Amino acid sequence: MKRLLFIGTLLISSLSHAQVTIWENSPFNYNNSQYNYNNSSYNYNNSPYNYNNSQYNYNANNGVYDNSGNRIGYETQSPTGVTNVFDNNGNRIGYSPSKRQ
């Protein structure tokens, strides 16, 4: 019985794999980090005070909308190619890693 349990445990553990995070996609990579000035709302290009990012600029083409059509934020792209998503108050709520190789 012990042998069967041991073999079963080995089979189950050999089928499970640890999740691997690619460094380019990792939030610990400085290019993706919110502490990188290029990804910060303190950078004027990412700031909600920049009229191009303002929710009051109806001609802005970088708005992010929910399924009901309400503007929930905006997105900007850093010089390194990371796409940052901010809410209307300038809080970074997500990112997409650079597609550059």
Q: What does it look like?
A:
β2 (71-77) and β3 form a beta hairpin. By secondary structure, the chain is of the alpha+beta class. 14% of the residues lie in helices and 20% in strands. The chain has a 4-stranded antiparallel sheet, with no helix packed on it. The protein is globular.
Descriptive keywords:
alpha+beta, 14% helix, 101 residues, 4 strands, 4-stranded antiparallel β-sheet
Beta-strand residue percentage: 15-25%
What spatial form do the alpha-carbon principal axes imply?
globular
Main sheet: strands, sense, barrel: 4 strands, antiparallel
Unreliable stretches, pLDDT < 50, 5 or more residues?
none
Bin the helical content: 10-25%
Average pLDDT, rounded to a whole number, is 85
> Order of strands across the biggest sheet?
1-2-3-4
Instruction: Assign the structural class, choosing from mainly alpha, mainly beta, alpha/beta, alpha+beta, or little secondary structure.
Output: alpha+beta
Q: Multimeric state of these chains?
A: single chain
H-E order: HEEEE
- N/C terminus separation: 53 Å
Describe, in short, the structure shown.
With 101 residues, the chain is an alpha+beta fold. 14% of the residues lie in helices and 20% in strands.
Give a topology summary.
Elements: H1 2-15, E1 63-65, E2 71-77, E3 83-87, E4 92-96
Antiparallel strand pairs: 1-2, 2-3, 3-4
